[in-house]
Amino acid sequence: MRRDIDDLPTQLKAAAKYIIDHPGDFGIDPIRVTSQKIGVSPNVLVRLADKMGFDGFNAFRQPFRSALVTDAEEKLGQDWLDQSDKSGNYGTAQAEFARNELNVVSRSLRLLEPETIGAATQLIMQSNRCYVTATRASYALAYYFHYAGRMAHPGLKLAPRHVGSAIDDLLGADERDCLFAITVQPYSSDTIQAMRFAKKQGLKLIMMSDSDVIAPGISADVVLPVSTRSLHHFSSFSGAMAVLECLLGHLVSAGGDAARDRVELHLKAREDTGAYWQPSRLPRVKKIKSPGY
Asked: How far apart are CA 55 and CA 50, in angstroms?
């Protein structure tokens, strides 16, 4: 479908795009539900199935149903890694890199105890403002966490907001606020200075790092430990991102209906202002579950 979508008639193109974007829903929903979501008749899906070379709609949908078992990926084994390992130089290297990333994510999540993630969630949600800081490569993690997390807690503030020091943004912070700092080896001097300054201001400190002892004078109230082992010259952030995703899930859950309303409000504002590209001639999909982070 990805290869042929540009050559399809308009309604078939709309159906194909929906299936590509929502493969899980397509695998589960009856044909009438799918057609209603797309805004086309069920016959369009039957025509698309025929166009793709399938003997009817159910045969067309079956591969998508089968793919849903990837929600239990851990039960499928790692034969694919062994196959990759035997497929030449790139395959051997890819298998080695993939095994490392799987280990990094698994170890980071195993280290994340429920009491720890619960304490971090409560500190953030109970704070008036929670400043999120990181520098250099780690800044990407902080930016994403702030971008998505502010919908759960509007008090999340990215520091530094501009090219400068996080301390500039912390000048007005007090004991009602907290700082969420992300740093891994080699530890950023700017982030360490921000943490020290925050503690002097009376802020609670949440730290995500590959160690709970990174520098003198740093004593975090909550430490989110992550593995950063890498087979190249830079730290792996896959484990840290997995932990952030879990924390975001807890924040949205703790935010309840108000958080979900904010997600919908952000999504609607982006749609209304054309933030996301939409094919101009295709019918609008009636139901989109993703908040579009």
From this structure: 7
Q: What is the pTM of this model?
A: 0.73
Is the pLDDT confidence value at 155 over 50? yes
Contact 11, 3 (CB under 8 A): no
Looking at residue 159, its amino acid is A
Q: How confident is the model at residue 72 (pLDDT cuts 50, 70, 90)?
A: low
Side-chain half-sphere CA neighbours of 192 within 13 A: 13
Instruction: Say how far apart CA 291 and CA 293 lie, in whole Å.
Output: 6
* 8 Å CB contact between 57 and 41: no
Which residue bears the tokens 């057609």? 35
Give the phi and the psi of residue 182 in degrees, each rounded to 5. Answer: -120, 120
Give the C-alpha separation, 34 to 39, whole Å. 9
Q: Residue 225 forms beta bridges with which residues?
A: 209
Rg for the chain (alpha carbons), in Å? 23
Contact between 128 and 211 under an 8 Å Cβ cutoff? The reply is no
